[in-house]
Design goal:
Strand content: 5-15%
Shape: globular
Radius of gyration: 22 Å
Order of helices and strands: HHHHHEHHHHEHHEHEEHEHEEHHEHEHH
Structural class: alpha/beta
Strand order of the largest sheet: 8-7-2-1-9-10
Number of helices: 19
Length: 418
C-alpha cells in the first residue's frame, strides 16, 4: 500500500490544519491565514516552543522543534504533521529514494533491463534525448555496447544521471511514490528532478557540462576510502593542505580527496596504525579544492537555470539536512567542491521521514550497506538496491517493486528486515 495521492493527503491534513490554526491563534491572540509565514504573523521562539509542546502532547513525538520553522506556515506544517501521523498505520509502505553517484557505473550498466523492460527503456530513451545534445553522443548506445569509456567523467556523469532518472521514473510509474529523496554526488541531480527542483532538460544540460568541465582538468588527483571517523580525518588533512574530506558516508567511513602524493603519505601513516585504506579508481579528486577551477565556468551555465524548491522532501548532502528553500545557482556551484555529507543527510531522512523501505537507485549497490548501518540494522527500514549489478533485468525489477508494495516477495528478497 503506497502513500496517499496528493489530493487525499490534503484531505487528511484538514483536521491537523484546523487544530494547528486554533493553537496558533491562541498564542498570537488572533486568527492567521494558513499560508502566512508564522514568523511574519508574530510567532516568536517562545511561542513556537510552546506550540511544539502542544503538538507533542496531542500527537506524540512526530516532529522536531526546528520543524516549526522548517515548515513555516500552518498549511505546510499541518501537511507535514499529517504525513508523519499517517505512519501509525502499520500497513502503509513509505519508500525513500537514494540515488548513487560516481563510482557505481560499469560497462553495460542496466543493459539487460533496457532490453527487457519497456517502461525502463522508454524513460532511459527520454533521458538520452535530453542528454545527447550536450554530451555529444547517445548514452544508450554507450550502455548497450558495453563501452569502457563509461568510466570517462565526461560520459560517466550524464550516463549515471540518465540511469538514475530512468530507474526512479520506472518505480514511480509502477506506483512507488517517494516520501523523500537523497542523492550522493552526481546523484543529487536526478534526485532533484524526481523532487521537482530541476526539470529533466535543465538537469541533463548541467550534468553534461559539469562532467565535461571536470574531464578537462589536469590529472593528478586521487581519492581514498578510509575506515576512520570524520574527526580523525580532519586531523589528517590539517597536516596535508592538498587533501580534503570529500565524503562522510557513515560514522567510520570517510573518503579523502586531493593530491595523489599527499594521499600516499596519509595512506602510509594509516597503514602504520593498521587502519584499512582503499584507493578509488578515479581520474580526478572529486569534491575537493582541486575542483575549484570548474566552478566559475559552471556558474555561467547555472545562471540560466531557475532555482526551484523541491515538492518532495529533498535531503541535501551539501548541507547534510533537509533542504527547505529553492536550489539556486549557489547550491550547485558549492556542490562541486563541498564534501558529500551523506551520513548526516541519510540520518536526517531516516529520523524525520521514518520510511519503511529505502531503495538505492543506481546501476549497482554502493550505499545500501551504509543505509542499513545508519538505519539501525534489523530494527530499521528495509534497505534494498533496485539493481544488483550487471545481470539485473526486468525480473529483478519486478521483485523490487513487489517488495516496495509490501508484497509477498518483500521478506524473501531481504531475508527479513534490514
Amino acid at each position: 500500500m503506497q502513500e496517499r495521492p496528493p489530493g487525499e493527503q490534503d484531505d487528511f491534513a484538514v483536521a491537523h490544519r484546523e487544530w494547528l490554526s486554533e493553537r496558533v491563534a491562541h498564542y498570537l491572540g488572533h486568527p492567521v491565514g494558513d499560508t502566512v509565514p508564522l514568523a511574519e504573523a508574530g510567532l516568536d521562539s517562545v511561542a513556537a516552543l510552546s506550540l511544539y509542546g502542544d503538538i507533542e502532547n496531542e500527537f506524540g513525538t512526530l516532529i522536531d522543534p526546528d520543524d516549526v520553522w522548517a515548515y513555516p506556515t500552518v498549511r505546510r506544517l499541518a501537511e507535514f504533521l499529517a504525513m508523519r501521523d499517517a505512519r501509525r498505520d502499520p500497513g502503509r509502505v513509505r519508500t525513500a529514494f537514494v540515488l548513487t553517484g560516481q563510482g557505481s557505473q560499469h560497462p553495460g550498466m542496466t543493459a539487460g533491463l533496457y532490453r527487457n523492460s519497456t517502461g525502463y527503456r522508454a524513460f532511459l530513451d527520454e533521458a538520452d534525448a535530453a542528454v545527447r545534445p550536450w554530451a555529444g553522443e547517445s548514452v544508450v548506445d554507450l550502455i548497450l555496447s558495453g563501452d569502457p569509456r563509461v568510466h570517462r567523467t565526461a560520459l560517466t556523469q550524464p550516463a549515471l544521471f540518465a540511469v538514475g532518472y530512468a530507474l526512479a521514473r520506472t518505480l514511480e510509474e509502477a506506483g512507488v511514490r517517494p516520501v523523500a529523496v537523497l542523492g550522493h554526488g552526481i546523484g543529487e541531480f536526478a534526485a532533484a528532478v524526481v523532487a521537482g527542483a530541476l526539470t529533466l532538460a535543465d538537469a541533463a544540460r548541467l550534468v553534461s557540462v559539469r562532467g565535461a568541465l571536470m574531464q578537462e582538468l589536469p590529472p593528478g588527483g586521487g581519492m581514498t576510502a578510509v575506515c576512520i571517523t570524520p574527526y580523525e580525518a580532519a586531523e589528517l588533512v590539517a597536516a596535508e593542505p592538498a587533501v580534503g574530506i570529500s565524503a562522510v558516508n557513515a560514522a567510520k567511513a570517510v573518503v579523502l580527496s586531493g593530491d595523489r602524493a599527499a594521499l600516499g603519505r596519509i595512506e602510509t601513516l594509516l597503514a602504520g596504525r593498521s587502519l584499512r585504506c582503499r584507493r578509488l579508481s578515479v581520474s580526478h579528486a572529486f569534491h575537493s579544492p582541486l575542483m575549484a577551477p570548474v566552478v566559475p565556468r559552471f556558474e555561467a551555465v547555472l545562471r540560466t537555470v531557475p532555482g526551484r524548491a523541491a515538492r518532495v522532501p529533498f535531503y541535501s548532502t551539501v548541507h547534510g539536512r533537509l533542504a527547505t528553500g529553492p536550489l539556486h545557482t549557489s547550491y550547485w556551484a558549492e556542490q562541486i567542491t563541498a564534501p558529500v555529507r551523506f551520513a548526516d543527510a541519510a540520518r536526517g531522512l531516516l529520523t524525520q521521514q521514518v520510511p519503511t523501505h529505502v531503495v538505492e537507485i543506481g546501476p549497482r549497490p554502493v550505499l545500501t550497506p551504509y543505509l542499513r548501518r545508519i538505519g539501525g540494522g534489523p530494527r530499521g527500514p528495509v534497505c534494498l538496491p533496485v539493481c544488483q549489478g550487471p545481470a539485473s533485468d526486468a525480473v529483478d525489477l519486478a521483485g523490487v517493486i513487489s517488495a516496495l508494495d509490501a508484497g509477498p516477495l518483500a521478506e524473501a528478497l531481504q531475508g527479513g528486515r534490514g
